[in-house]
Design goal:
By secondary structure, the protein is mainly alpha-helical. The chain is built from 7 helices and no strands. It is elongated and about 60 Å long.
């Protein structure tokens, strides 16, 4: 028996990318633009003299590290989605899983898990950029830029209630009710 998957029952963005593969076409450039804005802010903050050259040299690693950090921290929540069918109806695990998927604020444990995943992703972004992207740079400058990137590009969407997001998407006429 084939199971219907509705987008409101998934968690953005990793879930969305698996269910709606063409979302990569939209998500990757948006992620790149956001990482670019964060990096440019960091370069202004540390008074980098040659911002353009520095940006061109480093942005690809910043972008890849940020995206990988988001994906890594999405995996536990993706696991909950896949195992949700095996959870006993009404159990604590099902309630936490449902809240993580739809609205983390509906369950205190789900909220804590979502916040922890955001913090872990931020830490990964900071550490990986510090150790990989900016390893040859002056330590103080590398720490400041890495911190700005971590704070500005952490996946805060993990704690945003997805049902409201998908209801908004459903109203967009060009999607034609795909998300219902």
């Amino acid at each position: 028996m084939k199971k219907n998957i509705k987008l409101q029952n998934i968690f953005f963005p990793l879930w969305m990318l698996m269910v709606v593969p063409y979302a990569w076409v939209i998500l990757l450039p948006i992620n790149f633009i956001w990482d670019s804005i964060a990096m440019i802010c960091g370069l202004f903050f540390v008074n980098e003299s040659n911002k353009f050259r520095y940006y061109i040299k480093k942005i690809w690693l910043v972008w890849i590290i940020g995206f990988l950090s988001d994906i890594i921290c999405s995996l536990p929540m993706l696991g909950l989605l896949y195992f949700q069918d095996f959870m006993k109806k009404g159990s604590m695990a099902e309630k936490i899983s449902e809240a993580l998927i739809n609205n983390p604020f509906a369950n205190p444990i789900a909220c804590v898990i979502a916040v922890i995943m955001v913090v872990i992703a931020g830490i990964l972004i900071y550490v990986l950029n510090l150790k990989v992207t900016f390893k040859k740079e002056e330590k103080d400058k590398a720490k400041k830029i890495s911190l700005i990137l971590a704070v500005l590009t952490a996946p805060y969407f993990f704690v945003i209630p997805s049902y409201g997001f998908y209801m908004f998407l459903n109203k967009l006429s060009f999607l034609g009710g795909f998300f219902g």
